[in-house]
Amino acid sequence: MTIYIIAALLPAILDIAFDNKYLGRDISASVRRKKLLPYIVVASMPMFIILGLRGYRVGTDTIQYITHLRRISEMTFSEAWDYSDNEPGLYVLMYLCSRISTDPTFFLCVYALITTFSFIRFVEKNGDGELLTIFFHVTLGSFLFIVTGMRQGLAIAFCLLAVDYSRKRKLLPFLLLMLPAFLTHRSSIMFLIVYFIAHRKLSFSNFFFLALAATVFIAFLDVFQSWFNSALDYNYDIEETGNGGIFLMIVLLMNALSLMLSRQVLEERPDALVLYNVSLIAAVLWIARLFTRTAERPSYYFLPATFAVTAIALKKISDPRKRLILKVLVMLLSVLLLVYRLRSAPSLSPFHFYWE
């Protein structure tokens, strides 16, 4: 468990260190970005180490992916493409890696590089709370999901890279990134909505429309689930669940905090509007999660935006003492939640490296 705690605490400590050194200083955004980048890279290194250098039984499905890799290493490209119906993305990556090395750790390191780079790029493009965004990513479940769910983890990486193009209204590069995401995990088609909601204002009418759409979605969840399965050739069922309420409250509180400070944030960073709209989709999916566990998996496409807007909001609290107290309190509770998750995830903890 120690390495996960290090992965959580390192970005938190670096965030405090960076603020102590640069907060309040009159530096341009470009200079700040240049000085912050080494902090972001260092803060992300434990994620890369966990993903790339883990033992082959760390993560529920890792050993199965290693088995697939060994089979695909003996295939042609066309055989690797056809290895899985309509979702060849991860298996094509396995094939390409196997042309260089059949060592499973090499493939895991390539996967780690893609997913870690994607998240670094995402936080670097959605600034003012970069290190805290990494902290929330590690502590609030989305990183642990990427450790275990490698197909969807790779699809999430492409989706996060596409966010910036939705902000810039560049449809072609957005779709070019969504294509490999879809070919890796078809559920990523839900992320197409980001392009169309990216610039919706945080107005009463739009909130009313979102609430109405969420109500219809949840009321007819079984219908949407059936359509989703039919369209994407999945066989997900409505899985009743008695949990999810605690994390829903966390997501709602994070959205509430970010919205309370949204006026100040958007005056300084109007391009952050896309993050607020994407974060609200995550909240809707976690409300649906009360009724079916199936809604949890697609929520991981959208949760990074929730982490980003919360991190930005914490940075905008004007009183330094209140800001520090709230940050420390949030960090403590987040780490406790991480420990709780790890204690109930024997495939993730205790962690061991591939050579152990």
Structural class designation: mainly alpha
N-to-C SSE series? HHHHHHHHHHHHHHHHHH
- Average pLDDT reading: 88
Total count of helical runs of at least 4 residues? 18
* Main sheet summary: none
Rg, rounded, reads 20 Å
In quaternary terms, these chains amount to single chain
Low-confidence stretches: none
Query: How many strands in all?
Result: 0
Percent strand: under 5%
- Judging from the principal axes of the Cα atoms, what is the shape? globular
- The share of residues in helices is over 70%
> Could you give the distance between the termini?
15 Å
Question: Could you walk me through the main structural features you see in this protein, from its secondary elements to its overall organization?
Answer:
The chain is an all-alpha fold and 356 residues long. The protein has 18 helices and no strands. The longest helix is centred in the N-terminal third of the chain and has 24 residues. The chain is globular, with a radius of gyration of 20 Å. The mean pLDDT is 88.
Name its key features.
mainly alpha, 356 residues, 73% helix
Task: Produce a short descriptive summary.
This protein has helices spanning 2-22, 29-52, 62-72, 77-81, 89-100, 104-125, 130-139, 142-148, 150-167, 171-184, 193-197, 204-219, 221-232, 245-260, 262-268, 273-288, 296-315, 320-343.
How would you summarize the topology of this molecule?
Layout: H1 2-22, H2 29-52, H3 62-72, H4 77-81, H5 89-100, H6 104-125, H7 130-139, H8 142-148, H9 150-167, H10 171-184, H11 193-197, H12 204-219, H13 221-232, H14 245-260, H15 262-268, H16 273-288, H17 296-315, H18 320-343
